[in-house]
Amino acid sequence: MSSQFAPSARRKLRLYAAASVALFGLAASGAALTDELMIWAEKTNGTSTILAYGPIDPVKGPLFMLSCFNNMSIIVLDVHKEIAGAKPGTPLTIELASAKSKAPIEGEVGLNDTTGKTFGEASDVELKPVLAVLRDPGPLTVTMGDTTATLAEPGRDEAVSAFSKNCEVD
């Protein structure tokens, strides 16, 4: 997590991200993800764009959510997969990897106030390395300590392309 963001700024980002999620119908419930159908989706409202991978049911929260806030010039990443034994606020490296490349992202352990479950979050994410991995063919792996998740390929190319067009943050 960048030291330039004071706790109050992080709270504002979280509130803005939560409002954006609600706006886009991707409620950040942090509900346990099962073996249900998962899809890639991109949504934009003009000032922000979200790239998400999660259950087809929009009531359930996404596993992976990359948010681009054009009006604040910031990229935020949330990975809603519980990190066993982790304490909120602890520094965390979220690694997004394909068979060809990796993008390590420095963040921290977050806590879903509704469910009490931990997750990975990062603010001020450098977009280019993340997009490079997202554009690679094949499944992707997200690793946060001992916690891993696999993100399937079908539908990713179209969603990433739309996200790239609508995100104006370099």
Give your account of this protein's structure.
The chain is α+β, with helices and mostly antiparallel strands and 170 residues long. The protein has one domain (7-166): Immunoglobulin-like (Sandwich). Helices cover 22% and strands 35% of the residues. The protein is built from three helices and nine strands. A nine-stranded antiparallel beta sheet has the order 1-2-3-4-7-6-5-8-9, sandwiched between helices. β3 and β4 (74-79) form a beta hairpin. It starts with 6 loop residues before the first helix and ends with a helix. Residues 1-9 and 18-34 have low confidence and may be disordered.
In short:
This protein has helices at 7-23, 127-135, 156-166; strands spanning 38-44, 48-55, 64-69, 74-79, 91-97, 102-111, 118-123, 140-144, 147-151.
What is the CATH third-level topology name? Immunoglobulin-like
Rounded average pLDDT: 85
Oligomer: single chain
Contiguous runs where pLDDT drops below 50 for at least 5 residues = 1-9, 18-34
Estimate nothing, just give the exact number of structural domains. Answer: 1
